[in-house]
Amino acid sequence: MRLAFQQWEFGKIAAKFLPEAAGDAVLGTSFLSISDPSQLLTPWQGMLVLGCYGFIMLLAGTIRLINTDVD
């Protein structure tokens, strides 16, 4: 998906914040950004992005669980 996003100018910015790119930033390496390391976030930014994705999924799961009708 990141490859598809990087085909367009607006997608290059958004591609940095996908979970795959955030994980690559935490690890400090990426197959897709070998030629241009500036495409990676810093490790702290990568952890923050992954944490936000986790929090959003936790919140969505909690809301769905609370709204589930068990009758």
UniProtKB/TrEMBL annotation:
Keywords: Membrane, Transmembrane, Transmembrane helix. The chain crosses the membrane at residues 44-66. The keyword Transmembrane helix applies. This is ABC transporter permease. It comes from Bifidobacterium aquikefiricola. The lineage of its organism: Bacteria, Bacillati, Actinomycetota, Actinomycetes, Bifidobacteriales.
